[in-house]
Amino acid sequence: MAQNGSFNAAKEADRTADSAKTEPNISGPSATNATPNGGSNPQEQLPPPVLAAGEQLEDFWSLADEVWDALQPKTFLERLEAGDLCHALWRSSVFVVTRRRCQGPPD
Predict the structure, then answer these.
(1) Ranked by mean pLDDT, which of 27-31, 51-55, 99-103 comes out on top?
(2) 28 φ/ψ sector (left φ>0, alpha ψ -120 to 50, else beta)
(3) DSSP state, 24?
(4) What does the alpha-carbon distance between residue 30 and residue 22 come to, in Å, rounded to a whole number?
(5) Is 25 exposed, middle or buried (0-12, 13-18, 19+ CB in 10 A)?
(6) Residues 53-62 as b or e (16 or more Cβ within 10 Å = b)
(7) CA 1, CA 70: separation in Å to the nearest integer?
(8) Please, are residues 60 and 23 in contact by the beta-carbon 8 Å criterion?
(9) DSSP per residue over 30-63, as a string?
(10) What residues contact 81, with CB distance under 8 A and at least 6 apart?
């Protein structure tokens, strides 16, 4: 930071302002494996859920496939909404099953 209170991030990073424009700072698997316009496979688009004891990852992926087939998300926001819906449905189904187990059989 300069004494006048100004801050130049490119200078602080030992780069010129021009090199900062031409050198993207993209790294990691998501940057190299990303499909530009999304994909039709939810396994490429979604992180896996945290599984409780007795849950199967294959069950989540089959639910995600059904949601993806029904919604057919194309844009980033549509894929984001479809992913949120997959995780919400997964958690709600786990909640219902757990609740039924705790309550026991109906009278």
Answers:
(1) 51-55
(2) left
(3) -
(4) 20
(5) exposed
(6) eeeeeeebbe
(7) 53
(8) no
(9) HHHH--TT--S-HHHHSPPPPPPTT--HHHHHHH
(10) 71, 73
- Decide: pTM greater than 0.85: no
Q: Left, alpha or beta for 18 (phi > 0: left; psi -120 to 50: alpha)? A: alpha
Structure-token pair, residue 23: 């050198």
Q: Tokens in use for 85? A: 């819906």
- Measured N-to-C along each axis, helices 76-103 and 57-71 cross at an angle, to the nearest 10 degrees, of 130
Regarding predicted confidence, which is higher, 18 or 95?
95
Q: How far apart are the C-alpha atoms of 93 and 87, rounded to whole Å? A: 10
Q: What is the pLDDT of residues 30-64, one digit of tens each?
A: 444 445 555 678 888 889 888 888 888 999 999 99
Across all residues in the chain, what is the average pLDDT? 73
